[in-house]
Amino acid sequence: MSGPPPGPGAGRAMSVGNGPPSAGLPPHNGMPPQQNAVPPPPAGSTGPQSQQNLNQIVLEYLSKKGYVRTEAMLRKESEPITTNGSAFPSQSSDQGGAKATKAFELLRKYMDDILDVYKPELRKLLWPVFVYSYLDLVREYFTKDAEAFFAKYRNLFELDHSEDVKKLSAATLPVHLTERLPKVYLDNKYRVTMTLMPFYNLIQFLESKIFEGGQALIDVVRDHLNIVTVDRATTAEKSIAAILASGQNEDELPAEDEGIPGHNPGHPLTSRHDPEADASRIRLTLGPYPQDQDLQDDVRAALQEEDAKNAPRPGQPSLVDEYDARIKREPTEDAPSRDMVPLPPSLARDVSMEVQKVVEHRDRYRLEPTRTGGVGPGVSVTMYTFHNTYDSINCLDFSGDNKLVAAGMAESYIRVWSMDGSALPSPTDSSQPSSSRRLIGHSGPIYAVAFSPSTVNPDPTGPPTSPQYLLSASEDKTVRLWSLDTYTCLVAYRGHDNPIWDLAWGPYGHYFLTGSNDRTARLWATDHIEPLRIYVGHENDVDCVAFHPNNLYVFTGSCDKTVRMWHTAGGNCLRLFTGHTGNVTALSCSPDGRTLASADDAGNIILWHLESGRRKKRMRGHAKGGIWSLSWSVESTVLVSCGADQTVRVWDVLLETGEGGKPGEGKTEGALATKGGAGRWSGVRRGGEGGRGHSG
To answer: Coiled-coil ranges per the record (predicted)?
Structure first.
């Protein structure tokens, strides 16, 4: 192959462009003219032309040897430079929507052709590449192209990112990029975790397709993504077996190791969410809260007295034996200390409640859904209908002794009913007692009510175990504590800046938790008018709150689609659970303290393993519209949920993959493949029209 003629004549080197000024290099002595020999420039010729010829020689050599990456870099550096230092785009290169479409199609085709073992990891790139390609088009004033690009590919992401797709579709002009959601994406790099092999293969592929969309993808990766590479050998989750399993049982939710902190689904263990609390290093204390020695002695004495009155049946353990086996256990590594969250001294009421809990634990019917396969007598269910409410009930709560029910009304008052129809007298009210009471004090709709902890008391001569107080939260930014002896307001707690959506009592009373529109959750004690702790971290409303059974941790769910686990006393965030594709609407921690259930308005229920911070499985069955209540069985094996689709569903949370339900026993659509989990609902009960306050 002969080199280009000297002088300004057109040649292949001219398509590369002029390089930086140089004196040029003469051909090697003895090189025949047929082997790319370039004659020295004639007198009067300029240095740049010689540099062109040199660049061409090097490019052809690199191409012949297969050094694709180095060749592409040299071509890029050899492009003409403008006055502001940027390279002139090639006249034949695509711009605007054509460039973005070509790049996105290139990425999709690559993912279709790649080995199946790498597809789950690489598919995590589709969403961020789509978002940033669209936002770049909008920012560069390619308005029509941006709309066409968005309309063409939005259906790929409607399932997992429906809210973001809806909001991004409204950002059609550069001025719209200052809105919250586009700004979140543009101000942060989207994190993606990948193993080394698929990452290197991807980069090599993009560099080999520089002029076919690869450069545009490289620009997006460089400017907007934070790809963290890990060695597959360092983590069992990235093993070949795990990846193959995830490919065979692909989760429909976005991958865990991705996203922007506090926004899109991301890994629950990464310290990027909370620099002060690396969940992979913080060991939780999930054991039961220890009883003080005085309470143990009093409970044991009361149980011995009860055993003397009512001897156990043959084969049935005594109450003292049941107490020793269940409650009075040897200290374990995950048992909390009593001084972590101090409680007031125990009273006779507390002793009576503990005795009743032991009796119920021994005599209760154990709900084991897989024992008979759904065949046999059903569990009795009591249902109540509230007439003539005119859609004014925002929330409901039943007392622990099953004698009272309270409803929070949109008309700013609370109605308390006696469930057995008995009168509710008050020493401060001389009027004729009735079976209901009306509590007036709030100046806005009531969004949450909660009775203080209580138990059934079969012995009317003993200390009362009925609820003493009722809490209510309202749009008026206050929480009120009501006495159930006098049915009057005792305290109004003020501190939140906006309406309060939800509240929850601690498992032992005394403490309670609130969540508000001001994006905070607050811990209160009944004997303090100001909050003891303020939990700050959510980017949107805190819609639901819950306590851990040992009182040491609290949970908050938010419209930012995340769930956070906080240390009650320390106030720091210990876990961030991300994976919901809708607003989190309900939370409930299992009685054994090991699993958290969270639900969203997209119809998903996700179970989280608290110790590891990882998702155990996802259960689907409810329609979109919101799941407003979750409740566990005592054994932590069954979960009950109710939603806006007018159904109540009973879930077997222990069901593993491959144990599909029988015909008529609906089941969930997949779960986290690496955990082998799946769920199914065991029954559906339909009620009246669904509606929602912010608690219920």
So the answer is: none
SS3 for 447-481, per residue?
EEEEECCCCCCCCCCCCCCCCCEEEEEECCCEEEE
- The first and second tokens of residue 386, run together, are 């509230």
22: pLDDT strictly greater than 80? no
Distance, in Å, from the CA atom of 156 to the CA atom of 268, rounded to the nearest integer, reads 25
Measured CA to CA in angstroms, residue 211 lies from 87, 126, 199, 223 at distances of 15, 20, 20, 19
Burial class of residue 371 in the structure, from the number of CB atoms within 10 Å of its CB (0-12 exposed, 13-18 middle, 19+ buried): exposed
Q: Would you say 471 and 453 are in contact if contact means Cβ atoms under 8 Å apart?
A: no
> Which residue carries 């601690």 as its tokens?
506
Least confident of 38-47, 169-178, 284-293, 461-470: 38-47
DSSP class of 305: H
Buried-exposed string 667-686: b where 16+ CB fall within 10 A, e elsewhere: bbebbbbbbebbbbbbbeee
pLDDT, mean of residues 387-414 = 93
Q: How far is 462 from 464, CA to CA, in rounded Å?
A: 6
Q: Would you say 668 and 620 are in contact if contact means Cβ atoms under 8 Å apart? A: yes
**Quick one: how far is CA 157 from the chain centroid?**
18
Q: Are strands 520-525 and 500-505 parallel, antiparallel or unpaired?
A: unpaired
For residue 396, give every residue at least 6 positions away whose Cβ sits within 8 Å of its Cβ, in sequence order, or none.
405, 406, 407, 408, 449, 696
- In tens, the pLDDT along 584-639 reads 999 999 999 999 999 999 899 999 999 888 889 999 989 888 899 999 988 888 99
The whole-angstrom separation of Cα 564 and Cα 661 is: 33
> Exposed (0-12), middle (13-18) or buried (19+): which is 560, by Cβ within 10 Å?
buried
Phi/psi of residue 573, nearest 5 degrees: -80, 125
Residue 461: how many CA atoms within 13 Å on its side-chain side? 0
- The tokens describing 275, both together, are 């620099």
CA distance 652 to 605: 12
Extract long-range pairs of 517-524: CB within 8 Å, 24+ residues apart: 517/541, 519/558, 520/496, 521/545, 521/554, 521/556, 521/566, 522/495, 522/496, 523/554, 523/568, 524/479, 524/493
Are the C-beta atoms of 377 and 371 separated by less than 8 Å? no
For residues 125-140, give the mean pLDDT: 90
* Strand pairing class (562-567; 573-578): antiparallel
Instruction: Give the tens place of pLDDT for each residue, 549-589.
Output: 999 999 999 998 999 999 999 898 889 898 898 899 999 99
CA 255 → CA 171, 262, 674, distances in Å?
25, 15, 12
* Angle formed by the axes of helices 214-224 and 96-113, nearest 10°: 90
Instruction: Provide mean pLDDT across the span 367-390.
Output: 67
pTM, whole model, 2 decimals?
Answer: 0.61
> Do 58 and 38 contact (CB within 8 A), yes or no?
no
pLDDT recorded at residue 4: 44
6 residue type, one letter:
P
Residue 3 has pLDDT above 90, yes or no: no
The H or E element that residue 52 is part of is helix 47-65
Distance (Å, rounded) from C-alpha 624 to C-alpha 604? 8
Strands (E), 214-303: 225-230, 258-259
| Half-sphere exposure (Cβ direction) of 158: Cα atoms closer than 13 Å | 7
Q: Could you read off the pLDDT of 245-281 as tens digits, one per residue?
A: 444 444 444 444 467 765 654 333 333 334 343 444 4
